[in-house]
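User: Show me sequence and structure for the first protein, then do the same for the second.

Assistant: Starting with the first protein.
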Amino acid sequence: MTETSGVTNRGRRGAAGLLVLTLLAGLLFAMTPAQAQPIIGGEDEPFPVGSPFTELQIGPLTGELGVLDVDGYTGPSTFDPVTEGYPAATDVPTTWPTRNDGYAGVIPANDAEGNEVLTYCIDVFTSTQTGIPYERGEWNESNVRNLGYVAYILQNYYPTVPDVPAGVADNVRAGAVQSAIWFFSDSFVLDPDNNRQLFDLTSEIVADAIANGPLAEPAQPDLSVSPQTAQAPASGELVGPFTVTADGPSTLRLEGVEVFADAAGTQPLAEGATVQPGAQLWTRSASTAASQGFSLQREVPVRESTVYLYDGSIPGRNSAQSLILAENSTIAAVASVRITRVASGGIEVTKTISGDAAGLQSAVEVLVTCTPRGGGPVVERTLTVPAGTAAGSQAETFTGLTAGSSCVVTEPEDGDNGLVTVTATSIEPETVSVVANQTASVAVTNEYARATGGVRVTKTITGEAAGLQGPIEVLLTCTPPDGGAEIQRTLTIPAQSPAGSQSEDFTGLPSESECVATELENGDNDQVSVTATSIEPGTVTVLEGAGTPVTVTNEYARATGGLQVTKTITGDGAGLQGPIEVLVSCTPEGGGTALERTLTIPAESPAGTVSDTFSGLPVGATCAITEPEDGDNGRVTVTATSIAPATVTIAEGATPAVAVTNDYDATVGGITVTKTISGGGAGLQGPVEILVACTDPEDGSTIEQAVTIAAGTGAGIETTTLTAFPAGSTCTITEPQDGDNGLVSLTASSIDPATVTVVENANEPVAVTNEYARAVGGLQVTKIIGGPAAGEQGEVVLDIDCDDADNAFDQQFTIAAGSLAGGYVETLEGIPAGTNCEVTETATGETDTVVLSTPVTITPGPVTIVEELVGEVVATNTYRTQDQGGDDEEQGGGGGSDYGGYYDDFLASTGGPWGPAWGIGVALLVAGGAALIVHRRRSM
């Protein structure tokens, strides 16, 4: 807020104040003029009522709102209420200055809508009175200390908490709270002798606040207008905008002004209009009153501890005590704008545009900046000339400028835009003093010329054939932005220019022209091909004064053609030849390193044709076709060779054909292998393989072929002829697999001859003979008799059953009744390998008195006869008498586990009695059950 009629704004609220206004039971007290006494409103000091700028006004005191006649002491500035605390009654510093206040308690106030709220004084040294206007402030604006402790008191005591302090009347509660507030704000200590009850209550409140600590400042209601002040010309021009910040709609109040919702002043807002948050407002002076402006009012909840400060609007009154809201209240919050009406004058600005480029310029902006005499808000007015305005003059008058203001005229935007250049500018005069009710003149002139720029064209030549190309021509075509005639410029590069870059600058082109580079001649000729071309960028815009770059790049390769080579293989030796290699060697025109291509045909490729096309050969090159390898290898003879044509000159894009032909005559022989199979085992043998390995007399390489006789082939003769061995080769004949497979034995084998020499066009004979005999093995059957009743059993019979073709080895093995304990052996020899034999017991030897202690065991079961091996089967019988029961140990032996002295007796056997060694063997067999013993027979 700015000063108005000598009254200070919020920034002048330096000192705080104490309400020393006392009105008891509707009576006004007129005391001595000391600040501690009540000051009442009278005819000599009127106050405004219902001002749109007022948020609170002090109301009249009626009833018992506080305590009268309060005496005490005020401490020095060095006293700290928080650290020192409230003194005890016996320690009150009576040496401090004394003070008498006629009233201590709540102070009623009314908001703009007439709602009453309660406040407390936070400034004991400054007066106030009924009708003094207030507005919201912040704690730091009040210049009052310790407001955090005051906030604690207000949140926890009367009237926020109605019955605290307890046990006293409301006016006493209010007096105690006010006295505690003054202690923190102004170091005021009550005189205990004047009012001991009030002293004790105040002391308790102070101690509680210090113990619990300060509270934070409450948040302000969200309602404000910015800026809060402005000067309005007496001539009635609008000023603004004023931006509204709020959390909801507010009500507009006016005093001596008109307010509009738009800058043009076409949307007026009446008294009481609703204004939304974020709105922008404009205003103008509508009266000659000293107090002018508008405000926004909105009922909002306001926290206790919110500070209210004198708004400085009463002429002749510079201060009033500061107040603090006593309890949470709903108040009509006010945000205001104060207007100062000022005398005004004007400035007419005339803008003149000239020059040959007039009409191409951008927008022009002329700025008039006026600073009021003695300071104040700066006013800016702008003349804007649209882009493209033709040559000529136009004027605009700015009125409502504060008289005495100093105005500076500048041109922030002069129309320079790349299309034009400002060649001359003048502002006459540049500074103007505003005179009331007069209009000063200012002339602003700009002269425009056409802006120009350039394009730099760079030609880059690359590639392995760079320097062989023909002439190159690059055309630059530029179209001016105003649609004028095209402008063309040309860059020429001579033929055979070497690899690298060449540039040319084309200047004087109208700026903003669109230029396109094209390549009329790209250097392509019969020696080179253009393999890549680029123009970057394709289109450029000419910039004022700049050389915009364009790069044109060509990559050159030698012009090429091709050659097709067809190889033909013929003759009765076709397919027996070695590898073939056809070489194409091309020498560039004018000399240089020859370029070689090769057609390779693997050895033993069959008769027919093979083709390959060689591309990328330099145009003009002479290509010679030769055959370094013709396939001659000793197995064949090359009887005819042709290359037609033998020399070719390469032409661009052409692919001539060359035919290479070889006729081969075979020089080979063969071997006839006769295989004879015989013997009793013929037909049971495995596969037979006869290998013929021949060494080529030419290169020493080995050629192998094999004859295979399938397994199981019967007795007889098989003949196989192996061919295509080089004549003169030395061949070795071996038999890697001879058919021996366990079922047969090879009894005779011969290769005759084992080495032969191949004769051209002949088949050398070789005889291979194998004689096979049937492989045989044997079987041994052992019968063990044991147990306590051994020797008392009946006849035991074992059946031996073999699956040979004629059952020649089937028989019975009989152990006579009464045979003593021991082992009895039967051996069979000459059984064909692969035969399966099984032993069973058809008579167990049990009688009416002798039985088996355990079942008969025959281990193993069926046996397969293996070549030159003897398979063994063991059958065990353990006997006891009927009256011996099943417990062999109680009968003194049996169970097959204890044979005592039985082995000292002669043991009968079909093969004869056992000796001591046989007894040990039997003992081992009995102890371990039955075992199969297999041993190699050295002779059968």
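Switching to the second protein now.
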Amino acid sequence: MDAVLDAARAWAAQDPDAETHAELETLIARAAAGEETAVAELHNRFDERLAFGTAGLRGELAAGSNRMNRVLVTQAAAGLAAYLVEKYGGQASVVIGYDGRKNSRVFAEDSAAIFAGAGVRAILLPRLLPTPVLAYAVRHLGASAGVMVTASHNPARDNGYKVYLGGDDHGSQIVPPADAEIAAHIAAVAAAGPITALPRSDAFELADESLVYAYVAATAAVAGALPEGVGLDVVYTAMHGVGWDTASRVFEAAGLPLPLSVAAQQEPDPDFPTVSFPNPEEPGALDLAVRTAREQSAELIIANDPDADRFAVAIPDASADGGWRRLSGNEVGTLLGWAAAEGEAGARHGAHHVPGVLAASIVSSPALRAIAAHFGLDYVDTLTGFKWISRAPGLLFGYEEALGYLVNPETVRDKDGISAAARFLALALRWKAAGRTIADQLEAIGAEIGHYSSGQISLRVTDLSERGRIMDRLRAEPPRVLGTVAVASFDDLATGIPGLPVDNILRIVTADGARVMIRPSGTEPKLKVYLDVRGDSRADAAAKVAALDAALRELLAT
């Protein structure tokens, strides 16, 4: 116990945050008095370190090396600064953004002071803003790197630290080997001594509003020409995040109808008081938006997650509970992907035209591949995450099923829920002008390429090692049948499969063509299972997904 008490005391001695310092001192006193739960909590916080990887940092706010706090963030900033100085020397620069979560601004200001103290030109965004604005700023300002302080759609108790790289990375999130190189620098900083010894400076810059105006103008352009004399009654929710101010400016600049915002969820609130989990995918997250839409007889609901990099859609459906149906990420990806491919096909001219590429993560629906084939475009499967999707050569449109869409790769090299919302509203207006609803458009696409349907199982665990045990069991004893349908193939992508990236993912294909992908979540304590089928109709596809879902739940429970 002495070692963990020493580590905790050393941490407390350098902690500049009054709240986490006091909380840790109390925990130390309880542990020193022999309280077993306090000792166990200290081991949980100090036996490991919150790992820095391609997703940056993300974790619960509290004191300790295995939590998000000012000490850890300061070490991360100093490690990133050392990496940038090593790579760019005196020309190194970084732009820092932050959202409305607890401590986001504090973490951002700490980072700016550390960067400036290390001799890196540091530019802090003028106020709390969406993640896509930070991703845009890296390219717009020609910065060597970008940092966004956010935990996206994680629970209220979490925060995180996302890193982007400029230069040859063009403003995309970090990928190997940069993540390991930055992590090594962070480890060296942590080992060197307390953060109180690190040089700090207030000589960082504050970006002005012109950067936000530039993002708004560039993003509004994705809407394109709009039909005249067509209106659309839309309800929008920011999910207690930072999306509304920027999104509403984009809609106005594009000439799009301004949605009615859900007032109770419009302003940033780190406690997320009206939702149990601030993720538009979660059951109940859109309840207030649905209630508002029913009261206003709206035609469409759109939503951003708290940092506005994700985008969700719900449409009227008399057969759905409450009269509204949230479209899956794959359905929205299909609609946006079809429009992108259709526009690309219509724009072809001359012998030197190079067709754009469609890309999606390997756990997203096969529908986008079918769309690419239908229009004669190339298609790329990528690993999960926009750090990979954004790097697809010649990218025209990319998405992942977790509500992430990249509709303007020349502007932002990351998922962008605001540009996706602007593009989707413009499409909805055009479909309405042509006498079609959003549901009609999905049916029309299904008639051309088949009716694809998806499902997902999220198996939440309290012990992260349980995810590995389940994956190991499936590898050791691959299923031969799912329900009443034989398994045609079982592939372990970790061993290397031709044409697919290497990752800790299991792929199962059944005799009737259904596909199952199983992987541990990279950001949450859960095992994620993705189900995809193709049917002759929407009802047929839905029935196949339901049968497959039941079979997988039985398999995972054994």
